[in-house]
Design brief:
Structural class: alpha+beta
Number of strands: 6
Strand order of the largest sheet: 1-3-2
Order of helices and strands: HHEHHEEEEE
Largest sheet: 3 strands, antiparallel
CATH superfamily of the largest domain: Winged helix-like DNA-binding domain superfamily/Winged helix DNA-binding domain
Radius of gyration: 17 Å
Strand content: 15-25%
Amino acid sequence: MATAQQSVDELKKTIRSAGLRSTSPRIAVLRFLSTTPTPISHGELVEALANEAMDRTTVYRNLQDLTEAGLVQRTDLGDHVWRFELKRPHEHTFGHPHFTCTDCGAVSCLPDVSVRVKNGKGVPKSLASQKVEVQLRGVCDDCS
């Protein structure tokens, strides 16, 4: 997986090892995500990569390709906006918890926690065997 310290050659190798062609847009998307500690929306990424001369469609297609290849994780935090983040195997597990500020909309990753749902009255049996995603909402420190 990519990290902030990786060179362009290392990013190319990461992309190729995931079974994709190493293109300039994919490198740019992966490089930016490797420096972003929180999930960002497609629109935020388009703005961030404005100097790379990529249109919205190119950014979206590359996000989709990188997600399908397992390099990027796509998350909906309950507001119907897909956000994307680099998969960081040593920092987060799949479906790690996020905090969303209800005032400013800022999103931050929280430390990994383990959630276990026990079978019991009113709990569907299949829920206990599935992954549970934790999303917390409240007011962030800057807004409080």
